[in-house]
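Hi C.,

You asked whether I'd gotten around to modeling the 287-residue construct. I have! Everything is below, sequence then structure, no commentary in between.
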Amino acid sequence: MTVAEALRCATKHFVALPVLETANPRLEAELLLQHALGLSRTQLYQRLRDEIAPDKEAAYYDLVWRRLCGEPTPYIIGRADFFDIELAVAPVAAIPRPETELLVEETLALAGKRLQHTPSLTIVDVGTGCGAIALALATRLPSAQIIATDISPAALALAQGNAESLGLASAVRFLCGDLLTPLGQPVDIVVANLPYVRSDDWQRLPIEIRCHEPRQALDGGPDGLRVIERLLRQAPPLLRSGAALLLEIGYDQEPPVVALASEVFPEAAIEVKQDLASLDRLVVIQL
């Protein structure tokens, strides 16, 4: 079987199984074949007419079968791309998603303005998971002090490994603990992509999420806001004057999150940002 034939066959299987929330069946087929053959995407397309060795073909179809059974492609190949960086991923932490790049973009814009008026800036990424947000910020803000917290030691170990792989081990300080409790100092910016899925919605999620990603990283309790509310109520004594909080939310959670933020920070300016799908995705609270 040639490379081109293998891609067509896997793509056809992915398209025929709508239970998978495959955004791009062809791309997932390519990623799995690249992984099986140890090739870059360019190399893969240079070899479309090449025959695949039997052992490599068997390895590829093992990966395809795992995907057809619902295992997410990033966990199968052990990596995911986020904001121009490649991260190791594993089931101890949720897979970083494209919509979270909005959180990074808005944080960079806000931090850039702050750094025009102050020589130092401290940013904390709460619930860092695999480290995606903290490390994306570290690549663009070398002068900022960046802290990443997580309650899971396994997730923190994964994030620290990613920091080392990216040459950012000294750029981010990793602290284990619940939300902001590990902090020993006030900070300027808090960013967080915390669990916000409602518990009752869990069983309706795609199989690759509910059967493979860590529920602790996604389930936000009955109203989806259990962890977000705790963060907001923890935050006041740990924020410097003029600090900001940026929170990723579910598309329909703007009213209750804004109400909570207004209760905790009655004098703050609160803005809601939409993602590329025009859905409410980010709440920005500026003291």
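If it helps when you're writing up: DSSP finds eleven helices and nine strands in the chain.

Thanks,
B.
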